[in-house]
């Protein structure tokens, strides 16, 4: 759209005002939803399992054996010198009060003493229908149990205690995490722009993006179209602010560049938008499509994260390409005060002295630069041998001590590890006794008893008649190891093999540990399926954007090398600096999707500008010009994204700390090493052939020959 003269300037201003006002109205409507996502989030691992998983089938069968499904809270009392009569009276009184708590299913079983006489345990079944309110129920139980006194320690553990602690962690997303993210972005923008005004525009646009994304996510989650959990909610926050600020930095940098060439802000913005928008759209599109590949996951949690994050990026693209340009137009040159750009027709490279010098260094030492950086990254990949992929135990989930962790350790000291969280076995009535005998013979199984008719909670009664539902009975197998340990998972796998071999039993094994086993298996399957699809999708997008085949292959190769180097370095940090026991089974896939999708962003920003400059200058000169003019803004964008993902460390959850660290480290490696040195040096060394088989590879041949001479 062309506008000339004063009338054109006036119409441009009116359009910008209308766009800003429209977005402010939208923000007023959507803003409140950004603080309500926790209302529609669920953090129950079982809800995210594939429908065909054995643990899911076991849950469905378990629902037929009870009037109401429950999740146990284990209140454990410990006195190392021995439980006293006064302690028993206190526990009995507490148990009576537990039964009066709304959400607790009565009757409660009697307290269970440990064999060594040093502990008492009360199993409190909490109604599973309470959902996120389980956290409030457990908090009430903790208030009743009180703190430690006179040498008697009290903790509330078990699946309900763990879930309550997770809910408390994720409740910090709408407060501390959002605040830390905003502060981080604000500080970096102030440093980058050194302006008391300009930082307002990208931060306001990022906030608008988050509000717009929140309303769509809220409505879809509330309608059960997708499932939202705390992990996806936290990632949405940092992703929108990080990616949004990245896109804003790119557009503002190009706008500032064009203000040196155009007298009117409208003309400068139109040219800047036309130059930056394709790269921003391609970048955002790559991230969106990569995230949507998570829909191929067999885990509902992954399938939810993909659309949630994709909605965040889509909202960010829409806001940054409409609301932000309108704000900048209204701000004009004054938005850059005190460093207002003047119309001087300066070469963009002249404004980027340090990056022009880096470009010159790359030109003089192209081959040594890309070879040495590739070697350094390859060396970092050796750290992958330290990356232990496992199912994190309950005591390893949090970066700080929690009541559920303390309680689980007390239970492990005085009871068989699986007490309170038994494995459930379903078999036909005719084979029930044989299945029980086979299960009892599996190493790691401490006891097997049938669920009897009339039992509501607590351990099964010995020698009681089993309850029969549709020709099936339910057995409960108490494991010797804690339910979240590697030993318990091995036992479940062996238990399944054993009971599946009983003829006619049609045995199904479920329970807390079985859920972890099936989740880990599904995560490994997802990696093998989704990672190749993401790579193919990114390759197609790059080929269409760059109109070449060789360049996309090289870019993907550099990003994969960067990804492997990042995991290698993070493995060393997690093990030797953070003292983490390993990474969760879902970590490699999440790290891959975010690092590769976001890492390729910076290569898109660079190479789309390199191609633009190559058309005018030739490939090698275009590489140097592209590096010089994008170096500062891309590095700033990388620092912003790394810092925002680092904000995940405010949530005391090992999985999110690891993911935030990996993305931060990977983005810095991408921006500082891969995009600044490896990619431009490789493209410069290859020359026009990098655009093969596109027309540009042939058109630049003669020009490059003259340049070489």
Automatic annotation (TrEMBL):
The chain crosses the membrane at residues 12-33, 169-192, 199-221, 233-255, 276-297, 309-330, 369-389, 529-546, 553-574, 586-606, 618-643, 649-669. InterPro entries: MMPL_dom, Mycobact_MmpL, SSD. GO terms for cellular component: plasma membrane. Pfam families: MMPL. Keywords: Cell membrane, Membrane, Transmembrane, Transmembrane helix. It is found in: Cell membrane. It is a multi-pass membrane protein. It comes from the Bacteria. PROSITE patterns: SSD. PANTHER family: MEMBRANE PROTEIN MJ1562-RELATED, MEMBRANE PROTEIN YDGH-RELATED. Belongs to the resistance-nodulation-cell division (RND) (TC 2.A.6) family. MmpL subfamily. This is Putative drug exporter of the RND superfamily. It comes from Micromonospora cremea.
